[in-house]
Amino acid sequence: MNGVIVAGTDGSAVADEAVCWAVDDAARRGAPLRIVHAVEAWPYGASGFSASGTADFAVRAGERMLTEAARAAADRRPDAVVTTELVEGAPAAVLRDQATAAAELVVGSHGVSAVTGALLGSVPAGVAGHVDGAVVVVRPSMADPYGGIVVGVGDSEECEPALAFAFEQARLRGCPLRAVHARRTPSRVSEPGPDRTEDEAPRAVADRLAAWRERFPTVAVTQDMACAPPAAALVDASGRAALLVVGSRGLGAVGSLILGSVSRQVLHHARCPVAVVRQAPLRSSPAGHR
């Protein structure tokens, strides 16, 4: 993947960490980084910079934020190609629009307006699971820098986009991948569906992972079967991870994009950056790349 990586910033400390995460990933991928700041409205009702004789405070502040963020990114990764963009609009809407042409969108878990103790800000909540592709939500300095990649995996095609992203991250970092499949109960009672027993789930997960192991032979993979609610198992695993990757269920009852309950709980409670990946399975399946 060599498309642009977009990082949103609002000048907060956690946004600075998101920019650092994004420029590191851009360098690993050999991709350009675009740092974006959204201004709610142009000054005095003007539709652009040139129509205003004097720059509005919000615009000047946004320009300073972008300059500082770009400088920090360049200092961290001198080889990275970094550009900035100041855009008019509500932050979540701006970032959703930016994500449509991006390989990856990176945001902080909360911004300057978040109240003390807030678990997740309105911007990441309004972006993750609402766009195709990967949205990475970075939390304040809680990840294990030496940890591997953790991915939530099920026995259905819904997890394919997350697996694609997780295997690629593990390959780029040269680190192991831990695939966590959680089930709420150890009972052997059949689940809804024809002749479906609990014993079939580990086999289905192993079969799904096998295709990705074949495509990424250098990635060391551990399959972890947990008897716990999925969100709880993934949050627990996040304490020993550099990145946690989860999928998004996709469409709601009225056709709008939604964030699944597991992804939402993980975003609120994970102790490392979280990538929420939503993408059509046919675009991510290993079979599609053969």
Task: Note down, in words, how this protein is organized.
The chain has two domains: 5-138, Rossmann fold (3-Layer(aba) Sandwich); 148-289, Rossmann fold. 36% of the residues lie in helices and 22% in strands. The protein has nine helices and twelve strands. It has helices at residues 13-29, 57-76, 91-99, 122-127, 160-173, 200-215, 230-238, 261-269, 281-284, and strands spanning 5-8, 33-39, 82-88, 104-108, 133-138, 148-152, 177-183, 221-227, 241-247, 250-251, 257-258, 274-278. It starts with a strand and ends in a 6-residue tail after the last helix.
Mean pLDDT: 81
Distance between the termini: 16 Å
Write down the domain tally: 2
What radius of gyration results from the CA coordinates?
Answer: 20 Å
Q: Give the structural class.
A: alpha/beta
- Can you tell me the CATH topology of the largest domain? Rossmann fold
Q: What top-tier CATH class of the largest domain fits best?
A: Alpha Beta
Give the CA-based shape: globular
Helix content: 25-40%
| Low-confidence runs of at least 5 consecutive residues | 114-118, 189-196, 251-257, 281-285
CATH architecture of the largest domain: 3-Layer(aba) Sandwich
Number of strands: 12
Strand order of the largest sheet: 3-2-1-4-5-12-9-6-7-8
Largest sheet: 10 strands, mixed
